Amino acid sequence: MMKKVLFLVLGLALAGCSEKKPLTPEEQWHGYCTSMGNAARSIMLDRQNAIEKSQAVEHAKKIEDEITRSFILNIIDEVYAMPLEQLKNNPDAARESIRKQITDQCIATPHDKMPHYKPF
Q1: DSSP code for 86
Q2: Which residue has the higher pLDDT, 6 or 92?
Q3: Which helix (H) or strand (E) holds 77?
Q4: What are phi and psi of 48, to 5 degrees?
């Protein structure tokens, strides 16, 4: 009986360590868009903490992947175009709103190439 239990536990442990299935292109794109939403939230936080747009743009221009750099620069333009008073009334809600908005916009964006990026 003990051998059966040990074998079962060992089998379950090995099954848990097996390789994950590769992501489909749709799953990869969704993950990328989630990262873009998280980046938008971070950019909003920077704006709320008085980081200048020029500093944000300078940092974004260092991104090597063209698709990601373009997304980030557009997010910076959108976030810095918002009135600062609007962002300070309810800062948490503003960050969550921009995260969701950018994630949804990204998911709806047609794409034929997967960007190379580091998750945010």
Answers
A1: H
A2: 92
A3: helix 66-81
A4: -65, -25
In the chain, the percentage of residues whose pLDDT exceeds 70 is: 80
Round to whole Å and give the CA distance between 109 and 103.
10
User: pLDDT digit string (tens) for 12-63?
Assistant: 444 555 567 787 878 888 999 999 999 999 999 999 999 999 999 999 999 9
CA distance 78 to 107: 17
- Using DSSP's 3-state secondary structure scheme, residue 105 falls into helix
One DSSP character per residue, 7-61 reads HHHHHHHHHHTSPPPPPPHHHHHHHHHHHHHHHHHHHHHHHHTT--HHHHHHHHT
pLDDT top residue among 115 and 54: 54
Three-state secondary-structure class, residue 109: coil
Give how far the C-alpha of residue 58 lies from the chain's centroid of Cα atoms, to the nearest Å: 20
**Length of the chain, in residues:** 120
